[in-house]
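To: structure subgroup
Subject: Chain for Friday's discussion

All,

I'm putting the inputs and outputs inline so they're searchable in the archive.
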Amino acid sequence: MKLLGRYQGRNGQIDIVECSWDGTRVYFEEGVRQSQATRDGESVFTYVKLMDELLSCSQQILILGCGGGNLATRLSRHGKKLTMVDINPISFVLAHRFFELPDEIPCIVSDFRKFVFDDRAYYDGIAIDVGGPEFRFTDEFDAETCDAIRARLAPGGRIVMNAMVANDIDPTVDRIAARLAGEDLRTWIVDEQGIENRNAIIACTPEKTLGSRATLERVMRQSHERWSIRRGRLRSRDLACGLR
């Protein structure tokens, strides 16, 4: 690997490296790989491609979290109108410098929770990809925060989120999915069963069926990984009854 730059961010040291064997660039934060993409910003991560597909019918999208900006780059190339929020201003600089994040995307420096509580705009898609060292998903996505995120949805809008799950019995993503969905949205989880410390995609949509399922399955097959789709196991009323 070739080190392209080393920077100090709000959450620790950020290294941008280029892989000698394929030319892809990797965004490491405190040693954790947050993004990896080709020089023109196309992510190699299956979860980014899945999030892109799950937001295919949305046009006005709020993106919470930047990293290398690969999801925003991909959505922008599909003609979406985007607003991106991240607490770490250096992430926007690095996404532009190393990962071809388009200049025209509004980039707002803010804690994502503060932003959604203060914002008054509405979006037909909300993409969430936040995290980092010591990030605790259950604490950060409490009921009030999830309600505030859902309140920013326009009618017919959807929420798609990347989270981390420890193992098959970890209830974190189901709890967050139920909080984000409230009483009106339906939930699906897309992840790799049997893999520890894995990415899991939460989809909260107004439809009774996951409309892009055939395309999602094609993306999953092309990855040669073990992705699968299931329904969320909890509803918001389950949390109210104490199934936490």
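Points worth raising on Friday:
The chain has a mean pLDDT of 92.
Residues 89-99 form the longest helix (11 residues).

D.
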